[in-house]
Write a structure and sequence with these properties.
Blueprint: E1 6-10, H1 16-26, E2 33-39, H2 46-52, E3 60-64, H3 70-78, E4 87-90, H4 105-133, E5 137-141, H5 154-176, E6 180-185, E7 189-190, H6 192-203, H7 211-232, E8 234-235, H8 236-248, E9 255-257, H9 263-271, H10 276-287, H11 292-311
Parallel strand pairs: 1-2, 1-4, 2-3, 4-5, 5-6, 6-9, 7-8
This protein binds NADP nicotinamide-adenine-dinucleotide phosphate (NAP).
NADP nicotinamide-adenine-dinucleotide phosphate binds near residues 14, 44, 67, 189 and 236.
């Protein structure tokens, strides 16, 4: 389908990455995409309409789709000519931070339902068509937290790990049907997500947590939250640009991290099969804040040491 117009369905386009991606693809100079930009609440469509400008109704159409509602997915897909979706971008998602003692199981289920089952529901509806046509690209906005957990992001990380495990399994079958699957893994991105998560964190009732945990959350996590986004954060447009590159790639990779500043942290996971290294480094970064720099330097040293070690394989030590 190289020169053919591709139908792209994107979820969660009321703001952030979904909105930026929908607009970027609709404005493609070569007009390679017809974008079905979806959102659960059409009352929020104004920012997208404004950003899409005169592409609205031409290369971009706005549709209702709630990833937690099977019927809304079905109705949306049925409204697309021949139900043909060449590229599905599963982007809708939500965050949750804080001590688990202060979160209800219901809140946690909503996160899993949106971030994980949302993807599953989409694929149950769209995958059979793609298999039949033996063509399609499934792009999932995952997160670096789908590879490596972070303090006070327990349930959010779990939801993204679920997505990653699900996709790793599915990718093997997809290959048989000539379908492509790509996980986009951004680090911090400055969007509504960041603002909502921070505000909810600030409002959180911490009375169910012990004093030490509550203080850790308020005085360490929340205190540094903004700064992390300011120093490491990417823009939604930046993530959209990476995503378009992956969509247009001839052989799109299974995983793509969008933030090179973050890559050393996720690489730690693969550097130590015991899994202690990333936990230890994160512990040091969080609880000995002034030592971040030295931890990073140690990490680089360690990588260099490891690569030297692998070059020396087969030779006697020392
Ligand atoms: N921001 C980050 O730091 C970051 C980092 C890594 C990965 N991500 C991932 O990137 C994706 C997009 O997030 P973002 O940063 O662009 O945040 P955002 O601006 O808050 O956008 C999230 C979008 O998902 C939608 N959504 C939530 N629940 C939905 C549902 N049940 N059905 C349909 N849409 C739903 C939201 O709609 P409403 O407006 O109606 O709530 C919104 O349009 C998420 O999967 C997130 O996990 C974000």
């Amino acid at each position: 389908i190289a020169d053919q117009l591709r139908n792209v369905l994107i979820t969660g386009c009321s703001s952030g990455i979904g909105l930026a991606l929908a607009v970027k693809m609709a404005k493609d100079e070569q007009k390679r995409f017809k974008v079905f930009a979806t959102m659960r609440n059409l009352a929020k469509k104004e920012p997208l309409e404004e950003a899409a400008g005169h592409r609205l109704g031409k290369t971009l159409e706005i549709k209702q789709l709630d990833v937690c509602d099977e019927q809304s997915i079905k109705t949306c897909v049925n409204s697309i000519p021949d139900r043909r979706i060449d590229v599905l971008v599963s982007n809708a998602g939500m965050g949750l931070i804080g001590p688990i003692e202060c979160q209800s199981i219901e809140e946690m289920k909503t996160v899993m339902d949106t971030n994980f089952f949302g993807l599953v529901r989409l694929l149950k509806e769209i995958l059979p068509d793609m298999k039949r046509r033996k063509s399609g690209h499934i792009v999932i906005i995952s997160s670096v937290m789908g590879i490596q957990g972070i303090l006070f992001n327990d349930v959010y990380a779990a939801s993204k790990f679920a997505v990653e495990g699900f996709c790793e399994s599915l990718a093997i079958q997809a290959l048989k049907f000539k379908l492509q699957l790509s996980l986009i893994e951004p680090g911090p991105v400055v969007t509504e997500f960041e603002r909502k998560v921070f505000e909810d964190g600030m409002k959180m009732d911490l009375s169910a947590a012990d004093k030490e945990t509550a203080e850790m959350f308020t005085n360490i996590y929340l205190k540094n939250y903004k700064q992390i986004f300011q120093s490491l954060g990417q823009s939604a447009e930046d993530v959209a640009e990476h995503t378009v590159k992956i969509i247009l790639a001839e052989n799109p990779p299974f995983r793509h991290q969008t933030n090179t500043l973050y890559t050393p942290m996720t690489t730690l996971k693969y550097a130590d099969p015991n899994g202690d290294l990333p936990i230890d480094i994160f512990y040091k970064m969080v609880f000995q804040h002034d030592k971040i720099f030295s931890a990073s330097l140690n990490f680089i040293k360690l990588l260099r040491w490891r690569s030297r070690k692998s070059f020396d394989l087969g030779k006697p030590s020392q």
